[in-house]
Amino acid sequence: MENVEDQKHNDDQPSYARIEPYTHPAGGWGALLSVARNLKRQEVFKKGAITLLNINQPTGFDCPGCAWPEKKDAHAFNFCENGAKAVAFEATSKRVTPEFFATHTVSWLSEQSDFFLEDSGRLTDPMRYDPVSDKYTPISWDDAFKLIAKHLQALDDPNQAAFYTSGRTSNEAAFLYQLFVREYGTNNFPDCSNMCHETTSVGLLDSIGLGKGTVTLDDFDIADAIFSFGHNPGTNHPRMLGTLREVSRCGGNIVAINPLKERGLERFQDPQAPVEMMTNGSTPISRYYFQPKVGGDYALMFGMLKHLREWDIQALAAGKKSVFDRSFIEMNTVGFDAMIEEIDRTAWPDIHAHTGLSPEHLESLAKLYLDAKTAIFCWGMGITQHRHGTANVHMLANLMLARGHIGRPGAGLAPIRGHSNVQGDRTMGINELPSAKLLDNIDRVFGIKSPRHHGFGVVDTIKAMYEGNVKVFIGLGGNFAVATPDTPYTQEGLRRCNLTVHIATKLNRSHLVCGKEALILPCLGRTEIDKQLHGVQAVSVEDSMSNVHLSAGRNEPISNDLLSEPDIVARMATAVLPNSDIKWKWYVESYDRIRDSIEQVFDEFHDFNARVYQPGGFHLEHPANQHVWNTPVGKAQFLITPLAEVYTDKENKYAEQYTGAKVYTLMTTRSHDQYNTTLYGLDDRYRGVFGQRRVLFMNAEDIAAAGFVADQWVDIESIYSDGVKRIVHSFRIVPYNIPRGSLAAYYPETNPLVALSSHDKYAKIPASKSVPVILHAGQAPEHFNLAEAVDPEDANQIVNRAG
Ligand SMILES: Nc1nc2c(c(=O)[nH]1)N[C@H]1C(S)=C(S)[C@@H](COP(=O)(O)OP(=O)(O)OC[C@H]3O[C@@H](n4cnc5c(=O)[nH]c(N)nc54)[C@H](O)[C@@H]3O)O[C@H]1N2
Ligand SMILES: Nc1nc2c(c(=O)[nH]1)N[C@H]1C(S)=C(S)[C@@H](COP(=O)(O)OP(=O)(O)OC[C@H]3O[C@@H](n4cnc5c(=O)[nH]c(N)nc54)[C@H](O)[C@@H]3O)O[C@H]1N2
Ligand SMILES: [Mo]
């Protein structure tokens, strides 16, 4: 009991902002207490238990928190702290009503923090912006759709509209959405994936023929080693910790590759393992922790391959078995020899210069990989959000292919996706670069003529809005104005639109960055009952490991005026395309009909309804596991980018030649109390930060070398070759276990620093994990006082003042 009390103290909402090392394991009592606090804050305690018991159950709803798959033998609780927070935020009793909008002008709301906006509650009514009063006023659903139709029909060219999707959207809504947009005439589908795992999708498509992972949860049970590259499961995929804990307890190696020492990767207490909780024991998660510098992974993987190559030469010379899986390579791949030539050409000092690891550590990492009979590679934003993100993904695949680890039990590639249905939305055709096959199938089934030319992703949409080439922006979920880079430029782009429309559950800043006209359309959330003509409906989602299953909410909708996402899309289509032959309304009467049509478009969705109604749904097989490679050459491809090309791109060169001040590489990342742009609170418990977000994690030697001290306030300025001044003010230095030259701070506060032009060459993901920055001594934000009470209720003021 002592320990429990002790933790309670640590986990109580702080009475003052503080930095304090967190010495407890991740998960455990701390997580449960945090759940309780969030349910209370959102006033969901009465229905909270019921809501939570339905998460990830065969008859409940899919957790909106992340895309980690459910356990097959799900017991009573199959959710985590942060999933519970996501649910609490949606099931909140607070409301944003027409009266709320009548009280506040958009200008006033714009001055409030993101925390305040979302914490105000659920949107209840469709609203239209009135520029005269600077307020949102109620509008009927019919009039809202008429307004959208008027704007879309008035465009000279359908390509002057862009249709954003955020990854919570269900398969059914996404399918209807892409169908509507293609019948309307454009492939402009910016998607949150364009800021997230697009490099994975593009890179794996090149390497193995389909941009998805190849493993299932069962593979984790028998893997010899799990390599975790650049993701933070303790915060972002907490249910994954249970899996890692099992692997670790069964003697499997867990190898973390991350510049930051993340608590969740070090030690973990499973809130679902009562004995461990009672004894306050914890399972060490990471047996090995390697800390490359930010962006060092490409060199690190290059080095791993070079070690394998050298060991291979030695093995063959000694008459031993090759280190590489030669027969697998021979039968299944192309490009191996060219890759080896590139590796041979590259000298060790050049590799070591970029990893941030000592040569000995690099060698032991390579040895761990060599010794693993079966290995799984997991990765997240630390790999994808770089200018060389696609090259990183190619390299992950190279390592796996070289050892024949694809299509073998207990081994394979496991990208850890973010939004709970981001993978499904892509599967359903939300794609600005659709394949000809997809378009042909859609046209065959629906008798329409889909546009063939490719459309805009996020980066190109922003540019086009700014330059006046996109004039209507429609967002199915998400928070485009805040999640995207180069904030002032992006927001100006949105303001220049003739019409901006947001389909959303909660108020956010994107709704306040209005085009000349603007609409907010409130929709049902995952947790809510969706009743249509044929009764209560379920939607389907696809998790990170390609399992497709149903999700059905259990709560009464928070307002009678909400429509479901499929319904909103169908009504929009009916209004915009009066001559359409597609029976939009008929689809919404029963979502089974939508699924029947999905089945007709995608071969792998055969018998969709029959299979998805089975408990747990069904799994979409990755062809690579059968050694079927859907690449242009019909084989898996080894693809390698010369090291010099990766590390001396335009921006790296610019940073290297910059003499104004010491240049660091900043990663922008998530705190424990946020879901992307949604802030649940101001703590980052596992990193020891409480009651504040404007912090900068920095190596102690760097702090000293720069003549700074801990707790000092600094301004962060990014330096790009375009010469544009980008700066954010008043961040507090926190000494942290991070390599020299690397820094970390939270997103979205740091998004104004990320240049829109700094993105991966192929997938165009903004490089939000490698921002070249310099630091200036700064000032505390006005009125900020460490001893001041930082209640969640006051958080708004603090964040504002710091702004
Ligand atoms: N609670 C919660 N859950 C979430 C989200 C959330 O915001 N909150 N977001 C969801 C979404 S959309 C996504 S995409 C995922 C994101 O989940 P993650 O992929 O974990 O994303 P980040 O929090 O940005 O953390 C990136 C991790 O990569 C490390 N890193 C940064 N740069 C590098 C690098 O150069 N190399 C290496 N090896 N590591 C690096 C950081 O230290 C950090 O541990 O989580 C999803 N789940
Ligand atoms: N600098 C920096 N920038 C980043 C990142 C980073 O690591 N660093 N990460 C990037 C990543 S990985 C991602 S995925 C993006 C996230 O980008 P987005 O997906 O655009 O942003 P979210 O914050 O997840 O969106 C939150 C909003 O979604 C709405 N919402 C929630 N649930 C529902 C629902 O069921 N239906 C509908 N219609 N709306 C709903 C609510 O109104 C809420 O305000 O940000 C990216 N931006
Ligand atoms: Mo994401």
Automatic annotation (TrEMBL):
Keyword Iron: yes
Any one GO cellular component localisation term in the record: membrane
Cofactor annotation: [4Fe-4S] cluster; Mo-bis(molybdopterin guanine dinucleotide)
Single GO term (MF): molybdenum ion binding
Biological process, per Gene Ontology: cellular respiration
Protein's UniProt keywords contain 4Fe-4S: yes
InterPro entries associated with the record: Asp_de-COase-like_dom_sf (IPR009010), MopB_CT_YdeP (IPR037951), MoPterin_dinucl-bd_dom (IPR006657), Mopterin_OxRdtase (IPR006656), Mopterin_OxRdtse_a_bac (IPR010046), Prok_molybdopt-oxidoreductase (IPR050123), YdeP_MopB (IPR041953)
Residue intervals of the Molybdopterin oxidoreductase domain: 122-503
Superkingdom assignment: Bacteria
Family membership noted in the UniProt record: Belongs to the prokaryotic molybdopterin-containing oxidoreductase family.
Protein name as annotated: CbbBc protein
Organism of provenance: Acinetobacter rongchengensis
